[in-house]
Amino acid sequence: MPRLQTSSARARTVFGRLSVTQRTVGLLLAVAVFGGCTPEPTPPPNILFVVWDTVRSDRMSLYGYPIATTPFLDRWAQDALVFDDCVSPGTITLASHGSMFTGLLPSEHGADNQRTNLPSRHHTLAEILAAHGYRTFLWSANPHIAKQGNFHQGFDVHLHPWSKPYLERARQIVKNKLSPLDTSNELLRRHAKNTVRKWDIKASGSLAGEALLDWLARVTGDPDQASPPFFAFLNYMEAHRPTIPSAQFRERVMPPEDVPRSYEVDRSWPAIWSYNFGLTDFTPEELRVIGGTYDAAIAELDELLRNLLTSLDANGQLDNTIIVLTSDHGEHLGEQRLLDHQYSVYEALIRVPLIIHAPSRLAPGRDEHPVMSFDIFPTLLAFAGIDNPIADTSHAVSLLEPRSSRPRLSEYTAPFTTAFRTVRERHPDWQSAPWETALNALTFDQNKLVRRSVDGTTEVYQLASDGAETIDVSETQPELRSELETLLDRHLAATTPFRADGETLPTLSEDQRRRLQALGYLDSSDETPATPEAP
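-> structure tokens emitted (535 positions)
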């Protein structure tokens, strides 16, 4: 269990689940127990929530990967609590971000491949913190995590690489990364023709820290006056396809002979989808190069994190700041004959990093408890001393009180159908029916069940001895399969599936508009000449 370092921090953890009156009474009791003098009131912590989009933990040197993909994080995390057994409740951006923002499973909050907006009925983490006096800021390089999907709900300011102040610089940053020899994806052609879309400028992570610092300078005001705490959420997309890490990072982590090949292997969507559906193939060498390019993108993220935290520290913005780093989901790199992060709930997609840096509140170390990325929701509320409004119904568990054993559900609630249409253009006789299925994965005590909705078929893996999920024991161990299926059915029975009711997205109040205008952020939405593109 995470070790709270001080009696006051331990008291705050308990008080976070109580009402204001209960916390006041509890504080008096804590004074009686822990000492006779009244402690100085501790201001609410700032919160910096960072998501490295599409990063799987097993490709990070922090988690034992033999290539030094995260050298800065390795050092920085020595003062943090690193969770070694974290899975995501969803395997796509919409589902997993929706879960982290609401504390709900994907099937409960409703955002997925077929419903691409987060329903406004949910109380998001940003909304709750804002209601308790936090200033809230979102930077997202992922076009899904934006106003168009209602993921801006609760944020005072929401910015992106395609926001007007950053669009041209984002284009230039990405263009500078592109080698004139790169034929692996469509970006070089699009930038040459100036037909750039939102997805084409997502790998411009250096702008995230700049935008955050600029916002903090605007909202902190008089340095002699106490400022409200801030909650900042940053989404980085360097590891998401198309991966275009700079040459320096390719050379840092890849064998020399693989670097030129990394610009040649076809990683276009038609090539990836045709491979996933068994219609074409990649050679082992090509898969190695694809994996190496992905590693280089993680190395670039590591450098971006170093620059971000260095800049924040130099500006005094890390004082009393809790930092959370995680990912929304992983990425297939040839495992189970798959690339990208669709049509799967395998380990390559659900195993994600989770690190919490809160030295004055949480003792550093490694934690092996079974946790999930949407456990961040109740945890940050507890840190802020705020009641969790869904504590009685959510499957999320505070990371301050992790359980030694728990069933964990990861969901792929709806298939991605755009790929089907694209592949049929090249292979008219191909049948998509086997892929038109939702998937559930139930992980419990190092055993895992995967079940397909379309036909109810199952797979069972024993992760302690087969972490790569190469041996399905569903037929050879029917008792284990039956036990896991029972656990899955119970877990699903304890959830309340989302039901659409024709709701509309919220609009800004007049007060919000005036405040944003005063800060110079009235045009901080998605208005831009760049147009969205579904992957």
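The longest strand covers residues 46-52.
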